[in-house]
Amino acid sequence: MAEITKRSEDYSRWYLDVIREAELADNSPVRGCMVIRPNGYAIWENIQRTLDDRFKELGHVNAYFPLLIPKSFLAKEAEHVEGFAKECAIVTHHRLKQVTRDGKVDVVPDPESKLEEEYIIRPTSETVIWDMYRKWIQSYRDLPILINQWANVMRWEMRTRMFLRTTEFLWQEGHTAHATAAEGRAETLQMLEVYRWFAEDILAMPVIAGTKTANERFAGAVETFSIEAMMQDNKALQAATSHDLGQNFARAFDVKFQPAEGPVDYVWATSWGMSTRIIGSLIMTHSDDDGLVLPPRIARHKAVIVPIWKTDAEKAAVCDKARELAALLRPTLGPVPVDDRDNLRPGWKYSEWERKGVPVRLELGPRDLAQETAMLKARHDRAKTSVPFGDIVQGVQAELDRIQQDLYDRAKQRLLDNTHVIDSWEQFTDLYENRGGGFAMAHHCGDGACEETIQDKTKVTIRNIPFERDETPGRCVHCGQPSIGRVVFAQGY
RNA sequence: CGGGGCGUGGCGCAGUCCGGUAGCGCAACGGCUUUGGGAGCCGUGGGUCGCAGGUUCGAAUCCUGUCGCCCCGACCA
Asked: A447-453: which pairs have CB atoms within 8 A and are 24 or more residues apart?
């Protein structure tokens, strides 16, 4: 069994080891893509279920649009083309032809099947969706349209990284249409708040919500908002984005409506998304050198029972009791596996479930049976407590609640400990060169060129302009020009 | 696309400089002893050394080409 490489030695190796050891994903034969294994997919399913419920509570519905986008669609919104043209997979033919080369059978695209207009494999769906919205929207009575789509998309990035930046990834993308600018903006902010809630309350991952700078804005948006989390190596990770698209896409796709009063106008749009990248952030936020650590609210299995025995008689008694307890826990926790495999010793099973990140382990042996208690062990801090059989349901639930809170508190403390108020360029460079980096709360003049220079010099970017920020005026940490408030800088993934 | 590294049983690696019958650990399988934190001993099976050429009596090893993967940079959710 491969050992998980220690974080201090090589962070990216550690991160990949956790993914492999926890059986979350494998490399696929397709460049930059991954095979999501059942353990990883179960996490994604929980993410889907939780977010989807919330979307629906807020009046959204799901729909599905095509994978392939006519090439011309992408060209309709100028900034959108610029943003995505460099990373598109293109479908050019619709048929293969068998050929024999050097005695070997091969297939090549049939030249006679070349498409008149190529298709792009969607890097995002704004264009196909807005092409349809044109047909669906006539009057203010057709608005708002609040549609979400669960789908795969492809972006041919130069460098890929499991979960964080795969060529193909899964996500949800919400695309809404509204009658007024204010309504569009309200929707954009509402959905960002959903993401903040999801990251913090469900994933136990504290984030900073704010506005992206113009440089970092989504291609085609008038304003982009993000939530930014801090990983264990002090780098920042954008966990979700929400975009106010203004009337840009409506103009590009000619989507007009008749308001209750006044002349025909273009509709107002938003889009917002969260991807499988969030699983990467989950790993890098909570996991340790023994493998994956999952917050209970997103874990596939909340608890596992490991029975311990010496003799066949003990095995029968212990396993019977284990299954009885599992049945008791099932209504509140879902399936609780009883690991009764007889070819493995308990120690092996412990470390295996730990690697997979199961939040709580119940150990049950002859001694426990005699005392009518089970030994309960928490994954993240190894805390061990004895719980009477009679209190098992409440006992486990209380421990899961403690774990959920503890993971959040721990991550929050780490975020605070590694967030620094920075007032000079010397402090700034010192932080990233010598003191391990983190979040720098510093003044910035707001000039895009200045922002780029900082990035070129230090690889540090403005993550966002936090909603809750120090608005005492000051001077830009880099160029000294006046600033109206602090922004959050960090090295990003 | 630039810089670095690596392709050897299922997994992790040694062997390559200096050519000479392909090895180690883990896993698998069988047996006995074990079982409250990754068990021990004995035994068994499994590899055209990424691929294609070349040099040589002889190539994992040397030469040429080629494919793939990983890490760093540019791109990015």
From this structure: A447/A476, A447/A479, A447/A481, A448/A213, A448/A214, A448/A215, A450/A476, A450/A478, A450/A479, A450/A481, A451/A213, A451/A215, A452/A215, A453/A478
